[in-house]
Amino acid sequence: MNWKSELDPVIKDYLNNLLKEVAEYKKAYSKAKDISRAQIWVALALLYRKITVLEATINEIKDKLFNETEKDKLEKTLKKY
Asked: Which residues does 14 contact at the CB level (< 8 Å), separation at least 6?
């Protein structure tokens, strides 16, 4: 049985979208000794890039919305989660 068929449809959709993005780098990771491991590293790098962009965007929004005291309070609150 295909393990993907057991996934929640939303997660399955996310996985398929990520795999499409990763496939853009197939020329590079297909040269690796362990192709599947290299493919995972590419996926992780793509996800890390997305996280970094989101963090930068959040910081820009915080800078525009809050003064320093408010930002410090917000940072402390966010660190709790």
From this structure: none
- With a cut of 70, say whether residue 1 has pLDDT above it: no
Domain range annotation of the chain? 7-79
Q: How confident is the model at residue 67, as a pLDDT?
A: 74
CB proximity list for 38: less than 8 A, separation 6 or greater: 28, 29, 30, 32
Taking 3-state DSSP, the helix, strand and coil percentages for the chain, each rounded to the nearest 5, stand at 80, 0, 20
CA distance 39 to 27: 11
Determine contact, residues 42/25, Cβ cutoff 8 Å: yes
Instruction: List own/partner pairs for 30-35 with CB under 8 A and 24 or more apart.
Output: none
| HSE value, Cβ hemisphere, 13 Å, CA-based, for 23 | 6
Per the document, the length of the chain is 81
**pTM, full prediction:** 0.74
